[in-house]
Amino acid sequence: MSVGVFTDRKQRPGEAEIAGALGALRPAWDGLIQHIRGQYPTEEDFTFLYGKKYGWALRFRVRGQLLTSLYPTQGGFTVQINLDPQAIERVQQMDVGAAVRQAIERANPYPEGRWLFIPVGSADDLGDIERLLALRVETKRLLGRS
């Protein structure tokens, strides 16, 4: 099964197709995008990532490093956030919802961290995702602060 719903590299989905796939969670998608754009100096692109297992995603980078990718799914979307081991330990001490906890459990641990794929089931998940994005920026020092 793929992370996103649009898995054909040759068929770039348009706005209407993305909106149709997102369904009732379109406002959550838009809200998260607004949050990212408002909080971080990002470069963004809608691109085909990592092959058919992942598909088309809206990717955000800060200073050339990945901040997050948003994959449209049928009836929602999945957020990818890559966290290093130190950040994973911090998240495990935080009060986060089931979606984040399950994403941590499912993610393969590597020496450089874990790729979390968090399915957004409701707007309630966005608070956790916003906290994880802030943690990613802090631990990777993406904004150039020490």
Write structural notes for this entry.
With 146 residues, this protein is an alpha+beta fold. The protein has five helices and five strands. Helix content is 38%, strand content 27%. The protein has a five-stranded antiparallel sheet with strand order 1-2-3-4-5. A hairpin with a 2-residue loop joins β3 and β4 (76-83). The longest helix has 16 residues, at 125-140. The mean pLDDT is 93.
The portion of residues forming beta strands comes to: 25-35%
CATH architecture: Alpha-Beta Complex
Helix fraction by DSSP (H/I, runs of at least 4): 25-40%
Low-confidence residue ranges: none
What's the pLDDT, averaged over the residues?
93
Annotation field: number of helices: 5
Shape: globular
Distance between the termini: 40 Å
Work out the radius of gyration: 15 Å
Name of the CATH class: Alpha Beta
State the CATH topology: Aspartate Aminotransferase, domain 1
N-to-C series of helices and strands: HHEEEEHHEH
Major sheet:
5 strands, antiparallel
Would you report the number of β strands?
5
For the record, the count of structural domains works out to 1
Going by helix content, strand content and strand pairing, the class is alpha+beta
Main sheet strand line-up: 1-2-3-4-5
